[in-house]
Amino acid sequence: MIKLQKIITPFVLAGLFFSVSHFQVAAQESDPPQISNVQVNDVTEDKMTITWETNEDADSLVNYSLQQDLGIVRIPVPERRSHSITLDNLEPGRVYYFRVISADENGNQGISADYKVQMTGAPQTGEADGEGQSDTVETPTTEEIVKEIQEITDPQELKEILNEVVKAIAGITEDLTIIGPPTVIPETNTALIKWTTDRAASSEVIFSPSSGFNGSDYAFSQTDTGVDTTDHEIRIIGLEAFTDYSFKVRSTDDFSITGESKNFTFVTKASLPEIRNLRVLKVEENAATLAWDTTVPAKALIEYQDQTTGGQNSVGRPTLSTSHQMRLADLTLGTRYVAFVISENSGGDRVRSQPIQFITVRDIEAPIISNVTNESTLFPGGESRIQTIIEWATDEPSACLMTYREGVAGGTEPTVREKERVEYNTRHVEVVVDFNPATVYQFWLNCDDEAGNKVQSENFVLFTPIQEKNIIDLILENFQSTFGWVKNIGGGGN
Question: Which residues of 240-266 are buried (b: 16+ CB within 10 A; e: fewer)?
Fold first, then answer.
């Protein structure tokens, strides 16, 4: 291990050194990694290894040079706390200047002090201090090189020069780096994706719905046809609401060197519900019923306030639906109330209605009967039995009785299905086992609410199933239709 010498005066970094402003700093963490224990190991004539440690996972970068303007070597993945970079192809006997830099995944950058180190071996120019040297070999200018190339007329020679230029570019150009994780701002059917690269490059996002995604074959791609840039922004469109997507960002520079991020995911927002047709269905002495519709399935919540006392309360239903009806109970007679409806979609986004007002009054409205259904089932046997289930609903707690009679033209006495006790409910069921098979019946419902308001429904008609014949009856009927004499069996025929 070689002893390091810190350089007190600051150095002006070379153009390849990244500005901290290029990094996207996450709001939740802005402290840069703390660099410690910087060491130089294995110093030879043309190579040395620099190690250091950070207090959090970060990437690895070394600025170095023979002069105080520093070059750069970087390992761009922020996944280690112990760092090591080997600088090779150095000149023996020369003094090199360096500093180490590490940035975490949020782009926060820690920078060490400046150091210098003496390489082993004899310097090729006879000078060992690395300062004030001048090269004796003259390098042709760009104009001279271009002029020489223009004088070449052999296509094969030009092709070989092109190949060598491409190799040289690949040898001196670093990998294009996506700095930090992309920023995603999802909406219902679009998402704005932003990212930064270490140099100007193109912009592309490849993405796919995460459901059924195999991790490599992205279904869609969107690119920005504008100029190359270091600050990239693409709004991807045509997305489904409340859907998980997987994506990568990709950028390519002028030398066809491509940088690509790892896979990330985001979820689009659910469609906001729109509250429509908000209305007060019924006002009672101590209750009120509100109804409304939403454009997408949503949870329901009503917040309401007593305008006399200022007392507030709420009632809600967690199930998703597009048609909503809720009853506010335990209100005070003769009081003005103001209510707000709140609808929440599957993504947790809420919308709030305009206020709606009502005054509780003495209940003079009869219950509303709705959703009347009936279903009959025949149970075969020696004496077939019919079971008929009749169901209905009322808009407020009510006590109901069902009345029926056989036929549709009257003439028979109606039968009332009496109750052992009076119960007030909004859902009602009546089970009848007295009906005959293959018979038409009509029935109606009488309901009273707790305030004594009465209502009678319209007449409903039902038809019970036909009784099934047993196997003996079927055999005899078959023979009778084939052989007329069967009907005389057991009789006193001629």
Answer: ebbbebbbbbbbbbeeebebebebbeb
Q: Which regions of 12-72 does DSSP assign to beta strands (E)?
A: 35-41, 48-65
In 3-state terms the chain splits into helix, strand, coil percentages (rounded to 5) of 10, 50, 40
- DSSP character at residue 20: G
Q: Distance between the two ends of the chain, CA-based, in angstroms?
A: 134
pLDDT, one tens digit per residue, over 250-293 is 999 988 889 999 999 999 998 889 999 999 988 888 999 999 99
* Class of residue 443 by CB neighbours under 10 A (exposed 0-12, middle 13-18, buried 19+): buried
Rounded CA separation 330/332 (Å): 7
Q: Which domains does the chain have, with CATH numbers?
A: 5-118 (2.60.40.10), 142-167 (no CATH), 178-267 (2.60.40.10), 275-359 (2.60.40.10), 369-463 (2.60.40.10)
Residue 103 in tokens? 């940035």
Q: What is the pTM for the complete model shown?
A: 0.42
List the one residue out of 279, 434, 264 whose CA is nearest residue 353: 279
The span from the CA of 301 to the CA of 306, in Å, is: 17
